[in-house]
Amino acid sequence: MDIITTIKYVFLGLLQGLTEPIPVSSSGHLVIARELFGIEATGLSFEIFLNTASLIAILAVYRKDIISILQNLWRFVFKGARDNDAVTDFKYTICLIIATIPVGVAGLLLKDVIGDNISVGFVGVMLLFTGLALWFIKNKRGEKRDGDITVKDSIIVGLSQCIALTPGISRSGATLVGSIAVGLSQKNALRFVFLLYIPVSLGTALISVGDIVNDPNMNTLWLAYLLAFIVTVIATYFAVKWLQNIMQNGNLIYFAYYCFALGAFSILYQLIWA
């Protein structure tokens, strides 16, 4: 393993960390970066490895929310508590579970279909769709809070997350669009999106342990993988904090512009240089 290869993988970790939380498709960025930098990779184990790193960062950012929900859930189920916090967080947890089911089923069914033979041009087209979705909800200001989320809302958000199994369609973007479309305020939509990311990412990591362990590159690129993992954790943490500030100011439109620009570049690259 040479230093240039290590730098390339660390760069992919940085790219994953910066783009996973924000609505611009981290998987699409990895496809583009691999093409531009000539990084050969088979299967999805490296992406899942980096997604697990992003999961750790998101757990750190939302640790207080998670602890509070778990405490209220425990009180509701085992202590018989029926105060507003206990009831709200119980319903909220049920809605998170319901929203997780569609992508869990789709992920299992499409596990062997979604691979690494995705072209840069295809990613570009999907980025344009992501940009359009963000454009349409740029001015929408919902009023629903955590306790107002319904089963129907959860199903809609869950189905929107399934679309993001395609590289170039942002997971956070798709679920943000779905959450805001059903009437959640931007602040509560963002919270729901990232709390929804936790069970989905955790489940993906657990069922993919074998793929990661048996990754043919692990023996020779373990240091590059490790450094990429660490960089991803750090970058994701700060990217989430950054997105929280952006959402407070209602500046989602800038992500739409970015997706349009990168999507156009990717399509032109496929047509002219690839």
Automatic annotation (TrEMBL):
<feature type="transmembrane region" description="Helical">
    <location>
        <begin position="252"/>
        <end position="272"/>
    </location>
</feature>
<keyword id="KW-0573">Peptidoglycan synthesis</keyword>
<keyword id="KW-0133">Cell shape</keyword>
<dbReference type="GO" id="GO:0046677">
    <property type="term" value="P:response to antibiotic"/>
</dbReference>
<keyword id="KW-0472">Membrane</keyword>
<feature type="transmembrane region" description="Helical">
    <location>
        <begin position="222"/>
        <end position="240"/>
    </location>
</feature>
<dbReference type="GO" id="GO:0009252">
    <property type="term" value="P:peptidoglycan biosynthetic process"/>
</dbReference>
<dbReference type="GO" id="GO:0008360">
    <property type="term" value="P:regulation of cell shape"/>
</dbReference>
<dbReference type="GO" id="GO:0071555">
    <property type="term" value="P:cell wall organization"/>
</dbReference>
<keyword id="KW-0961">Cell wall biogenesis/degradation</keyword>
<comment type="function">
    <text>Catalyzes the dephosphorylation of undecaprenyl diphosphate (UPP). Confers resistance to bacitracin.</text>
</comment>
<dbReference type="GO" id="GO:0005886">
    <property type="term" value="C:plasma membrane"/>
</dbReference>
<comment type="similarity">
    <text>Belongs to the UppP family.</text>
</comment>
<feature type="transmembrane region" description="Helical">
    <location>
        <begin position="189"/>
        <end position="210"/>
    </location>
</feature>
<dbReference type="GO" id="GO:0050380">
    <property type="term" value="F:undecaprenyl-diphosphatase activity"/>
</dbReference>
<dbReference type="InterPro" id="IPR003824">
    <property type="entry name" value="UppP"/>
</dbReference>
<keyword id="KW-1003">Cell membrane</keyword>
<keyword id="KW-0812">Transmembrane</keyword>
<keyword id="KW-0046">Antibiotic resistance</keyword>
<feature type="transmembrane region" description="Helical">
    <location>
        <begin position="92"/>
        <end position="111"/>
    </location>
</feature>
<keyword id="KW-0378">Hydrolase</keyword>
<keyword id="KW-1133">Transmembrane helix</keyword>
<protein>
    <recommendedName>
        <fullName>Undecaprenyl-diphosphatase</fullName>
        <ecNumber>3.6.1.27</ecNumber>
    </recommendedName>
</protein>
<dbReference type="Pfam" id="PF02673">
    <property type="entry name" value="BacA"/>
</dbReference>
<feature type="transmembrane region" description="Helical">
    <location>
        <begin position="117"/>
        <end position="137"/>
    </location>
</feature>
